[in-house]
């Protein structure tokens, strides 16, 4: 990977547990860091189920190695959230490839 190819500014958010007004633990996402990455769309399709048509897009982000990024994180790029499905370390901890799917969970837009 050539560092000049890291041209997309992405935001990484990490899942944290907080307590609501009643004291019940709830999960929420909080800003973790911003960094530059390379993004490439891999596949996209529509799955059909009893709930109807469910479109999905698979995307791959390549960025500098960071051991703090794990499966409790999600990526935000251009107001779209991506759920991390796989993290692959490349080289001698120089780069990581993060394979994602467009986030369809609760609070998908913020």
Would you kindly provide a written description of the structure presented here, covering whatever features stand out?
The chain is 0% helix and 67% strand. With 110 residues, the protein is mostly beta strands. The mean pLDDT is 86. The protein has strands at 8-19, 25-49, 52-64, 73-77, 80-90, 95-102. It has one domain (3-102): Beta Barrel (Thrombin, subunit H), CATH 2.40.10.270. It has no helices and six strands.
Name some characteristics of this structure.
6 strands; six-stranded antiparallel beta barrel; single chain; mainly beta; 110 residues; Thrombin, subunit H
SSE blueprint and pairings:
Blueprint: E1 8-19, E2 25-49, E3 52-64, E4 73-77, E5 80-90, E6 95-102
Spans of at least 5 consecutive residues whose pLDDT stays below 50 are: none
Order of helices and strands: EEEEEE
How confident is the prediction overall: mean pLDDT?
86
Give me the number of helical elements.
0
Radius of gyration, in angstroms, nearest whole number: 15 Å
Helix content: under 10%
What top-tier CATH class fits best?
A: Mainly Beta
Summarize the structure.
The chain is built from no helices and 6 strands. The chain is mostly beta strands and 110 residues long. It has a 6-stranded antiparallel β-barrel.
């Amino acid at each position: 990977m050539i560092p000049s190819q890291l041209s997309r500014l992405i935001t990484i958010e990490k899942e944290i547990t907080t307590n609501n007004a009643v004291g019940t633990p709830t999960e929420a996402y909080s800003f973790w860091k911003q960094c530059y990455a390379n993004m490439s769309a891999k596949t996209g399709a529509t799955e059909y189920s009893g709930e109807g048509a469910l479109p999905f897009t698979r995307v791959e982000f390549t960025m500098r190695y960071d051991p703090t990024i794990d499966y409790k994180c999600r990526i935000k790029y251009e107001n779209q959230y991506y759920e991390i499905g796989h993290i692959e370390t490349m080289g001698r901890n120089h780069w990581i490839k993060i394979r994602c799917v467009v986030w369809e969970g609760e609070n998908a837009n913020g």
